[in-house]
């Protein structure tokens, strides 16, 4: 099979591992810089050009689209889909998962456990917004933030009011969430492939930090997850319509709570913590599922 990987970084761990796994299975792997693709839209003849040449003849495409280029990246992926190329994750599912508010609304509608989350626009509504999520301490998140950037823990009501007012004054879109104290600065990353949790790790925040992101100095280790946590992760990925996803859970007194569903989860942390060849599992999923024009939006509508 000819498989394209949409990635801006051919030397990134995740991209390299996917190339290695694909080649080890006998496939022809091509890393394509998403932002160097340009497209022509014509009736029945969708074209993608790359560095002066037309891209064609691919059987599958693996999107590794960074959050900062979601708009352009999903447009490129849609063009592949129009050509009948099988996408590991579909463009509509990626767009759905990247919209934090929309994704939480969809998960909530399907009865999946979530931290209580508030969203408002007017400064006058801040006091009631804080009450809605149970008061301080609480977490304030920029909707466009990734890897823990733009996430603030406000430990007092006054601090929460000040931070929210500051963000609103900058016309930044934010959401406010309850702080799950019993999680102890840790979360569970469940890696879902083809409707199964194939690997799971516990990420622990560094001392003095509440964000468990590995990019922020957090540590990772193999973890055994409960049946409820497994089913929650699988259901969350399905609601988003993602075949490959990183589902981040918090362990709370009322059960597992979904923090985020990531459509381009990194492989380095999960493979090192668990010793599992997740890249090879993704390649095997492609071998099993890839067919021409096999693109049909899955999961919740809206």
What does this structure look like?
The longest helix has 14 residues, at 227-240. Helix 1 crosses helix 9 (278-289). The chain has helices spanning 13-24, 70-82, 91-98, 100-109, 126-132, 157-169, 227-240, 268-274, 278-289; strands at 2-6, 28-32, 37-40, 47-50, 53-55, 60-63, 86-87, 117-118, 138-142, 151-154, 174-178, 186-193, 196-204, 219-222, 244-252, 255-262. Residues 298-302 have low confidence and may be disordered. Helix content is 32%, strand content 27%. It starts with a strand and ends in a 13-residue tail after the last helix. It folds into three domains: 2-89, Rossmann fold (3-Layer(aba) Sandwich); 97-113 and 182-289, D-amino Acid Aminotransferase, Chain A, domain 1 (2-Layer Sandwich), CATH 3.30.470.20; 117-179, Dna Ligase, domain 1, CATH 3.30.1490.20. The strands form four sheets. A five-stranded antiparallel sheet has the order 14-13-12-15-16, sandwiched between helices. By secondary structure, it is an alpha+beta fold. It contains nine helices and 16 strands.
């Amino acid at each position: 099979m000819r498989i394209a990987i949409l990635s801006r970084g051919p030397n990134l761990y995740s991209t390299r591992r996917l190339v290695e796994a694909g080649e080890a299975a006998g496939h022809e792997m091509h890393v394509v810089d998403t932002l160097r693709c340009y497209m022509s839209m014509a009736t029945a003849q969708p074209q993608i050009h790359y560095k002066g040449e037309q891209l064609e003849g691919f059987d599958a495409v693996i999107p590794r689209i960074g959050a900062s280029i979601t708009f352009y990246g999903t447009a490129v992926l849609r063009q592949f889909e129009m050509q009948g190329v099988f996408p590991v994750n579909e463009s509509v599912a990626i767009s759905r998962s990247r919209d934090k508010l929309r994704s939480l609304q969809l998960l909530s509608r399907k009865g999946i456990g979530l931290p209580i989350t508030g969203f408002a626009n007017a400064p006058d509504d801040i006091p009631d917004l804080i009450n809605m999520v149970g008061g301080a301490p609480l977490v304030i998140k920029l909707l466009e933030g990734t890897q823990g950037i733009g996430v603030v823990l406000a430990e007092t009501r006054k601090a929460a009011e000040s931070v929210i007012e500051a963000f609103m004054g900058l016309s930044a879109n934010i959401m406010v969430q309850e702080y799950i104290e019993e999680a102890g600065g840790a979360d569970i990353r469940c890696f879902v492939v083809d409707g199964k949790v194939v690997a799971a790790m516990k990420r622990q925040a560094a001392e003095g930090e509440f964000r468990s992101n590995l990019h922020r100095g957090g540590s990772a280790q193999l973890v055994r997850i409960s049946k409820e946590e497994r089913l929650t992760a699988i259901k969350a990925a399905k609601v988003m319509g993602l075949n490959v996803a990183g589902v981040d859970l918090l362990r709370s007194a009322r059960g597992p709570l979904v923090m985020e569903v990531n459509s381009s989860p990194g492989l380095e942390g999960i493979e090192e913590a668990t010793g599992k060849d997740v890249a090879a599992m993704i390649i095997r999923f492609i071998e099993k599922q890839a067919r021409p024009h096999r693109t049909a939006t899955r999961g919740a509508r809206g």
